Amino acid sequence: MPPRDLTDPAARHPEKARRSPSVPGRKPDWIRVKAPVSEGYRRTRDIIRQNGLATVCEEAGCPNVGECWAQGHATVMIMGEVCTRGCAFCNVATGRPDALDPFEPGRVAQAISALGLRHVVVTSVDRDDLADGGAEHFAMTIRAIRRQDPEVTIEVLTPDFLKCDGSALQTVVEARPDVFNHNLETVPGLYPAVRPGARYFHSLRLLQRVKEIDPAAFTKSGLMVGLGETRDQILQVMDDLRAADVDFLTIGQYLQPTPRHHPVARFWTPEEFAGLERAARGKGFLMVSASPLTRSSYHAAEDFARLKAARAALAAG
Fold first, then answer.
1. CB atoms within 10 A of CB 140
2. pLDDT tens string 6-64
3. Do residues 65 and 56 make contact, with C-beta atoms less than 8 angstroms apart?
4. For 54, how many CA atoms within 13 A lie in the half-sphere containing its CB?
5. 178 — phi, psi (to 5°)?
6. Domain ranges of the chain
7. What gap in Å lies between CA 222 and CA 238, rounded to an integer?
């Protein structure tokens, strides 16, 4: 066993390091995951490769990729691997994207069929270079999946369509995804540093408009913690989301992809996540998922089933 580096406070006090959310340069025990090595993982990877698709699981360096891909669950990222935005938390490449591939929706549908998925999450890079932000490409993908298998339920995780007119959002909603997800990501005060190309109240209004277009739609949004926000600021965002009639909230720990990205201010403990989940449920969300490893698409199929059951129970009174 190599000697401990006693210049590292975590090495000098290992028990304290496991408890503390603020030890610099170290991930606490509760955020560690195993390397992906399973046969299921390799099968999912091969199907994704064979169909020439990108996934946010890989492009954004999701810590849950081993677990999800082992079960055949992957979040497909359409419209290329290059984003027109440069968010400080995100590891997806920024630059000038290629032209849209008109055959991509069909390949997505084929991959979903090969994986045997019953619930799929489709996301994308931001495409500010397109007049509709890629809305019609989203709609084409939804329709292609439904043609392949009408029983598959579809969740979309969309960009904000900030530079588009209102018809872009309408195009996606009228394609009737089962869940419409758009992540606020962080509290409004951190937008200039963390999400400079976006606008907090535009994103909030986007989620509200989904229900105005289709009152039966399920809406969902996600937040990261550990960027420098306070608990009170998170609680205020919860209130804003409920005012926009959002059904489902996810909250997870931010992990810095590379040293050039926004630093981790601190690691929130599992107990703090449990407290956030209780608070969110108390504010009236139909579904809440809050834990260090929670991500927008983590356990999406199981959570969608619970979301439908929660709405049915509420309707039954």
1. 20
2. 323 333 333 333 333 444 457 888 776 665 566 666 676 777 777 776 665 555 556 65
3. no
4. 17
5. -75, -30
6. 34-316
7. 10
Do 75 and 61 contact (CB within 8 A), yes or no? no
For the domain spanning 34-316, the CATH number is 3.20.20.70
Residue 224's H or E segment, with its range, is: strand 218-225
Strand partners, 249: 221, 288
Number of H helices, E strands in the chain: 13, 10
- Return the residue matching tokens 């392949």: 148
Find the distance separating the first CA and the last CA of the chain, reported in whole Å: 61
Tokens of 290: 């809050």
- Whole-prediction pTM: 0.85
* Of residues 147 and 65, more confidently modeled: 147
269 vs 30: CA distance, rounded Å: 8
**Exposed (0-12), middle (13-18) or buried (19+): which is 295, by Cβ within 10 Å?**
buried
